[in-house]
Amino acid sequence: MALCFPGSQSAAGRAAQHANFFRSDRSVRFVKATDTRTGSIVAWARWNFYVDGATLDQTPWPKEWAEGTNVPCVEYFFGALDRKRDAFMKGKDFFLMGVLVTLPEYQGKGIGSSLLQWGLEIADEKGVECWIDASPMSVELYKRLGWVEVDHVDLDLGKYGGEQGIVDRTVCLIRKPGGGEWKVEGGTYYS
């Protein structure tokens, strides 16, 4: 992401831009985990619930990117992810697991899994699939919760001003309600 958004925008500026973006998106849901001893937020997740008439087409992408944004990189990367997701999810009700963040000192304690489980339980109740675009290092966590790898997007960093010969992979995964079985093109079954 640093390659897409290398600009000098301050953390406060990014927070304000994100807050405005998400306030206008009726599909977005945030859930957080707080350390009860300190009151500090130690993990949070952003889900989008594209059900009951809310669709991806209604997501308000910024009209202008912040100064310093690597626009060709952003347009390629997020456009490729959108096309992959559309190939599997267009026209369906589904949940998008958009962001999961856990402070390093709280990782490995099941906190991130509990934030995922929160959305998965609601998805199971509604009978909808879930989608996530994930870093390769997080894929095993998602698979343990019933997600199945269906595709990926490779970002050649050298094409967008990054280090030559380095490719950053993002993995696309789907979870059926209840983590049920389904078929991927080519005849391979996953559960």
UniProtKB/TrEMBL annotation:
Gene3D superfamilies: 3.40.630.30. Residues 28-179 form the N-acetyltransferase domain. GO terms for molecular function: acyltransferase activity, transferring groups other than amino-acyl groups. This is GNAT domain. It comes from the Eukaryota.
